[in-house]
UniProtKB/TrEMBL annotation:
Lineage of the organism: Eukaryota, Sar, Stramenopiles, Oomycota, Saprolegniomycetes
Nucleus is among the record's keywords: no
Single annotated GO MF: oxidoreductase activity
Identification of the protein by name: Short chain dehydrogenase
Keyword annotations of the record: NADP, Oxidoreductase
PANTHER family in UniProt: NADB-LER2, SHORT-CHAIN DEHYDROGENASE/REDUCTASE
The family this protein is said to belong to: Belongs to the short-chain dehydrogenases/reductases (SDR) family.
Organism the protein comes from: Aphanomyces astaci
Length: 251
């Protein structure tokens, strides 16, 4: 096994153009990681640079930030996922893959539609699975060059917990996150055998665009907790569902 100090650690974050994904990118860049930011819209790349550094002159953003690379990746489009993986290249090690991109459509028993249910499953559950599979060679490459566990972290939600659901509603979001939890459990078995630890993360009820900024914590508080969880994670935590405060959430 290669000596880990021979290279910087690398994180790939989906949905890195705003909110939780953007703040995660900011955190890992500030702590010395190589950051690969994956965004759905190529135009969002400028937003990544602008928001991370709060630089007004857009022309200076790329050089100032020095993000290693920005990938165009739409988690609802399998061809886009494969193209992003090919662009990065299988020989680039990824120590931490954070599947953060997601969507929320608030619904009720009366309003939930088939189209919106399927859309949320496609983005919140199927997409992260396809991303994990596409970048598996990169995670495996990192396994061979690091003494620390390589981590696949899927951003889920406490509303995906079956045992904690006492309020109903939000059928598409709840069920798609529960599906993500189930997929991650299966991945923890298959990838665990390859030295990759799979985690689920609940970021809290965060003040982001997804929640119309109605959350009970700001994004910096959420990311501080998530980063602490990830920093402390060992392979013994494989298949664990963590709250941003470090507690374990029941299935």
């Amino acid at each position: 096994m290669a000596i880990e100090s021979a290279r910087q650690r690398r994180v790939l974050i989906t949905g890195a153009n705003r909110g939780i994904g953007l703040t995660l990118a900011k955190h890992y860049k500030a702590t010395g990681w190589n950051v690969v930011a994956a965004v759905r819209n190529p135009a969002a790349a400028s937003e990544v640079h602008a928001c991370i550094l709060t630089i007004l002159d857009v022309s200076l953003q790329l050089h100032a930030l020095q993000v290693e690379s920005i990938l165009t990746l739409d988690v609802s489009n399998e061809e886009s996922i494969h193209a992003a993986a090919c662009t990065l290249g299988a020989d680039v090690p990824i120590d931490l893959l954070i599947n953060n991109a997601g969507v929320l459509t608030r619904d009720s028993l009366a309003s939930a539609s088939k189209a919106e249910l399927l859309r949320q499953f496609e983005i919140n559950a199927v997409g992260p699975f396809l991303v994990a599979r596409a970048f598996l060679p990169n995670l495996e490459r990192a396994v061979a060059t690091s003494v620390r566990p390589q981590i696949l972290a899927n951003v889920s939600s406490i509303v995906g917990s079956m045992s904690l659901n006492t309020t109903g509603q939000n059928y598409g979001y709840r069920s798609s996150k529960a599906a993500l939890n189930s997929l991650t459990k299966s991945l923890s078995v298959d990838l665990g055998a390859r030295g990759i630890c799979c985690l689920l993360l609940h970021p809290g009820y965060v003040q982001t665009d997804m929640t119309d900024h109605r959350g009970d914590m700001d994004v910096h508080e959420s990311i501080a907790g998530l980063a602490a969880v990830l920093a402390k994670a060992t392979f013994d935590d494989n298949a664990t569902f963590f709250h941003t405060n470090g507690s374990v959430i029941p299935w």
